[in-house]
Structures are given as structure tokens and as C-alpha cells.
Amino acid sequence: MDFIPFDIKCYSKLEERFQTIFEPKLINEICQDGNLRIFKPNETLIDIGMLITHMPLLISGSIKILTEDEKGDELLLYFLELGETCAVTLNCCTRKAKSTIRAITETDCEILFVPVEKMEHWMIKYKSWRAYVLDSYNERLNEMVKAIDNIVFHSLEHRIKTYLKDKAWMAKSAILHISHQDIANDLYSSRVAVSRIMKKLESENFIEQQRNKIIIVEYNK
After folding, report:
1. Over the stretch 72-93, which tens digit does the pLDDT of each residue have?
2. Bridge partners, residue 213, by sequence
3. Rounded Cα–Cα distance for residues 59 and 16 (Å)
4. For range 53-59, the mean pLDDT
5. Under a CB-based contact definition with an 8 Å cutoff, are residues 3 and 29 in contact?
6. Residue 184: exposed, middle, or buried by beta-carbon count in 10 A (0-12, 13-18, 19+)?
7. How far is C-alpha 92 from the geometric centre of its chain's CA atoms?
């Protein structure tokens, strides 16, 4: 071997998740230069106005990415899952600009933070990294277009059903510990409107509602 992993535990996690994407030398460099951290659910990783110096690479768990309007109301843009990174953060890193998004953990997460200067270096050195970054831009752009389409072209009921299914899929569970206000915040709506539709979905046997708990009846169907 012409390289020695700096942190065996970190290297093993990266190799398991990225061996089909990155070459061993790049995985070794990411491990040497990155900072692997563990987070609990509902922790803010990146906030609006923060200067971005490191790019987050999601090793496990899920993260939701939000923006907010001039009144401070939040809008869900997309979710990040295993092996993904945030295109808006990438853009802020390369431009050395302040963040325009808020990133909050949905579940327990392992995240590797990569210094921006290394990210730029790898764009030149490794074709696989360049392809990964460009693919990430494309995927996140499609997610944002989809989010806009949902607001403009789909009913709130359709958006709520999609949102609940996505949350259940990421949590790998039919049981969601979220409130009507949480849903309203993420979908840029009012709690009253959400509660009305949730009652309708319950009557249609799409969900069951218990105290501080929503059960997706059609989970895995």
C-alpha cells in the first residue's frame, strides 16, 4: 500500500459508503483532513448568515435543509440522506459567502466536515470528487425545483401526504413524532390548514393520530 489510513474507524465508515464512488487515496485524504462528528436529532448544523468554512458530508442519518423569507417564516427545500451533501453549502464554500440556508438534523447523524480549501484542491486532483460535486449540484437543484412545483402546482393535501411518506421512509418507521405545527412550518402553511387536512387523512385511513405521534397506515404499501 502506498498510503496509511489516519483514522481506521473513520476510514472504514467512508470506505463502506463511498468505495464505489471514490478511489482509496481520496477516501484516505478525506479521512485525514475531515472532522467526523456525531449529532442528535433537531440540532442546527448550519444557520442562515453563518460563514461556511467546511462542507458537510453525511455519513449516516438524515438532515433537512430550509430557507426563510423576509418575515422569518421557514420553507423546507429538501432532505439530505446517506452519502449526500448540500449544494447550497457547496456554493457558499466556493464563493466564501454566508449561508442562505438552515440545516437541521432529522435523526442521529454522523457527519464529516471537510475544509473548503481541500474541497477545491480535490476538484482538480480527483475526477471522482469533481463528478460527485457536480452530481450533488444537479440533484439538489432538481429537489428545489420539485419543492417549488409542489407549492405552485399541488394541493396542500398532496404535499402533506408526500411529506409524511418521505419522513417515514427516512426514519425507516411508520411512526412519526411530529406535531401539526412542525408540518406547517416545513410546508410553509398554517397549523389550522394542516390540522384540517390531517383530520381528513385520518378519516380516509391514510394515517392514525395519537398524542404527539402520527402513524402512517400506508407505510411500505
Report:
1. 777 788 888 877 777 666 666 6
2. 210
3. 10
4. 84
5. no
6. buried
7. 16
Which amino acid, residue 73?
D
Output the pLDDT for position 155: 84
3-state helix, strand, coil in the chain (%, to 5): 45, 25, 30
The distance of Cα 14 from the centroid of its chain, to the nearest Å, equals 18
Beta bridge partners of 79: 64
In whole angstroms, what separates CA 77 from the centre of its chain? 9
Residue 39's beta-bridge partner residues? 109
Q: Which of 171, 148, 163, 167 is nearest to 201 (CA)?
A: 163
For cell 432538481, the residue is 142
pTM over 0.90: no
DSSP state of 52: P
Please check the confidence at residue 122 and state whether its pLDDT lies above 80. Answer: yes
Continuous H helices in the chain: 8-18, 24-33, 87-95, 116-125, 127-153, 156-171, 180-186, 191-203
Residues 6 or more apart whose CB falls under 8 angstroms from that of 142 comprise none
Measured distance CA(6)–CA(31) in Å, rounded: 7
Distance CA 175, CA 178 (A): 9
What residue ranges define each of the domains in the chain, with the CATH number in brackets?
9-152 (2.60.120.10), 155-216 (1.10.10.10)
Residue 32's pLDDT is what?
84
